[in-house]
Design a protein that fits this description.
466 residues, binds iron/sulfur cluster, 14 helices, binds 5'-deoxyadenosine, five-stranded mixed beta barrel
Length: 466
């Protein structure tokens, strides 16, 4: 999953009455955290908490945190510092303000958060957020609660689904977690430690949730997993199903117009999944497939368990069944021991793939991961210089991809009102934001449009047809 620094407040969905408590959830990190925040919000709604977008009017502030890189955790601690002052001011007025920390920093730091930040009432890990209401009840009685166990029970079985109206208010595109955790143990990565080992949600649960989303007006579903293409479950035919089989099955749901999935590992891109890209019109031609480095030596040190050549061959196979597949990736520069020649290999693989979109990061030492103990850590200024070169190449490719869309007629899923009156923002099959003149009543429709121009972060289009 991409962990570009999304930082979003969960949307308010209903008008609470004056007596309800209000919760403000701030989400850091990847799309799975966005999904988790929504599910925590739903769990809190059944406890009488209404969502708010105004931090100042909240009785509970919940930070859903990310631990993937260093700055992510630093940001959480500085946010908590600011909240401490807010809580002091509230307490002085005799008012309640509870502060909770959820997500991967909660999992990794646990008790340490309570030690560093006396104002925090609840620390809850990603595998226990179904127990958040209970933790809050205890906290209100005066306890400070840390719950970061890897729960034995399935949290999804214990979480309420939102009302249809609430789901509808969230828009026509939704996330659905199908898999969590990771057994790959890339040597730079904390995920196997914060999210635990790979777990797949059962087929029935996924189908029910997808159906429920569609019944509530959702047109596009993005399946989420740290290693989404490692999803496995027993199918109704008794066979073991993989992500490809799941996509074929989901594509049968009437009204579910678009499917996506993220994030994939190259080792788990099996034939059935590639076939699904060939056969399913609803499966969008956009694939986030991180490679991290173009150097075999570094790939080995990262424990990625494939070579640059194998990655390129895989993409060639995918493009042979789906020629318009837009590729996206993640890159790390400055992994311990990375030489100039290794970095040149990364630039070369980027040239060879030609990405439509990509995320690139300086290597950040994560305590407890094998990478942290490697000799030959790379100086910050070398990392910065490499990142700049890589990003300028990736940006050039991204701009070229956007330009190549001009003049094309594409299907646009109309998602939300645009900034200008009379405009709607839609999503292209390749995940680009596209502005077009349309009516709010058309939100949820998929209409043909012609791309007529490009902006810094979006495209412009005009409707075509009658
Ligand atoms: N340092 C820098 N980038 C990292 N990522 C994961 N761990 C680290 C780290 N320690 C990046 C990888 C991954 C993405 C989600 O975040 O590129 O694919
Ligand atoms: Fe981290 Fe590697 Fe697992 Fe991705 S595959 S979550 S980078 S350990």
């Amino acid at each position: 999953m991409s962990t570009d620094p999304i930082s979003t407040a969960s949307p308010a969905e209903s008008q609470p009455n004056a007596n309800t408590r209000k919760v403000f959830i701030k989400t850091y990190g990847c799309q799975m955290n966005v999904y988790d925040s929504i599910r925590m919000g739903d769990a809190l709604a059944s406890e009488g908490y209404a969502p708010t977008e105004e931090m100042e009017e909240a009785d509970l502030i919940l930070l859903n945190t990310c631990h993937i890189r260093e700055k992510a955790a630093d940001k959480v601690y500085s946010a908590l510092g600011r909240l401490r002052d807010m809580k002091k001011a509230r307490t002085a007025q005799g008012q309640e303000l509870m502060i909770g920390v959820a997500g991967c920093v909660a999992q990794a730091e646990g008790e340490e958060i309570l030690r560093r930040e006396p104002s925090v009432d609840v620390v809850i890990g990603p595998q226990t957020y179904h127990r958040l209401p209970a933790a809050l009840r205890r906290a209100r009685e005066g306890d400070r609660v840390v719950d970061t166990d890897y729960a034995v029970e399935d949290k999804f079985e214990h979480l309420p689904m939102a009302e249809k109206a609430q789901v509808r208010a969230r828009g026509v595109s939704a996330f659905l977690t199908v898999q969590e955790g990771c057994d790959k143990f890339c040597t730079f990565c904390v995920v196997p430690y914060t999210r635990g080992s790979e777990v797949s949600r059962p087929l029935r649960q996924i189908l029910d949730e997808a159906q429920r989303l569609v019944d509530s007006g959702v047109r596009e579903v993005t399946l989420l997993g740290q290693n989404v293409n490692a999803w496995r479950a027993t199918g109704p035919d008794g066979r073991e199903w993989g992500l490809g089989d799941l996509l074929y099955r989901l594509a049968e749901i009437p009204g579910l117009a678009r499917l996506r999935y993220t994030t994939s590992h190259p080792r788990d891109m099996d034939d059935r999944l590639i076939q699904a890209h060939r056969d399913l019109r609803t499966l969008m031609p956009y694939l986030h497939l991180p490679v991290q480095s173009g150097s075999d030596r570094i790939l080995r040190a990262m424990n990625r368990r494939h070579t640059a050549e194998e990655y390129l061959r895989l993409i060639a196979r995918i493009r042979s069944v789906k020629p318009d597949m837009a590729m996206s990736g993640d890159f790390i520069v400055g992994f311990p021991g990375e030489t100039d020649a290794d970095f040149e290999d990364t630039l070369q693989i980027v040239e060879a793939v030609n990405y439509a979109q990509a995320f690139s990061f300086k290597y950040s030492t994560r305590p407890g991961t094998p990478g942290a103990d490697l000799p030959d850590q790379i100086p910050e200024e070398v990392k910065a210089e490499r990142l700049e070169r890589l990003q300028s190449l990736l940006l050039k490719q991204q701009a070229a991809f956007a330009k190549s869309c001009v003049g094309k007629v594409i299907d646009l899923l109309l998602e939300k009102p645009g900034r200008m009156p009379g405009q709607i923002i839609g999503r292209s099959p390749w995940l680009q934001s596209v502005n077009v003149d349309a009516k709010p009543s058309q939100i949820g429709d998929i209409i043909p449009v012609r791309i007529i121009g490009t902006g810094p972060n979006s495209l412009f289009a005009e409707p075509v047809g009658p």
